[in-house]
Design goal:
The protein is mostly beta strands. The protein is built from no helices and eleven strands.
């Protein structure tokens, strides 16, 4: 059974930092391209970052320079380090694994508010 379990969300003040984790099980993790997405209430799911199996990373302009995606294949885990957080970063954050199949986690809430 495939599982992607996100953790690390919470409430943080503007300008603060959080690190999200997504632990995968049931897949050959090192073969998968991994990504983070987010969805705010009333909005469509938005791509935040991805990291290919070979380690190449890409980001949209909205988070470039503030967010960093990384992976540890020995722990079957992908991370999202989020710095300089803004209220508009508030959303549920999801991880996605894609290779021959596609899998999503259940999400973790991030709230940026003073």
């Amino acid at each position: 059974q495939v599982q992607l379990v996100e953790s690390g969300g919470g409430l943080v003040q503007p300008g603060g930092s959080l690190r999200l984790s997504c632990a995968a099980s049931g897949i050959m993790f090192s073969n998968y391209n991994m990504a983070w997405y987010r969805q705010a209430p009333g909005n469509q799911r938005q791509w935040v970052a991805d990291i290919l199996s070979g380690g190449t990373t890409t980001y949209p302009n909205s988070v470039k320079g503030r967010f960093t995606i990384s992976r540890d294949n020995s722990k079957n885990t992908v991370y999202l380090q989020m710095n300089s957080l803004k209220p508009e970063d508030t959303a549920v954050y999801y991880c996605r694994a894609i290779w021959r199949s596609e899998y999503w986690g259940q999400g973790t809430q991030v709230t940026v508010s003073s």
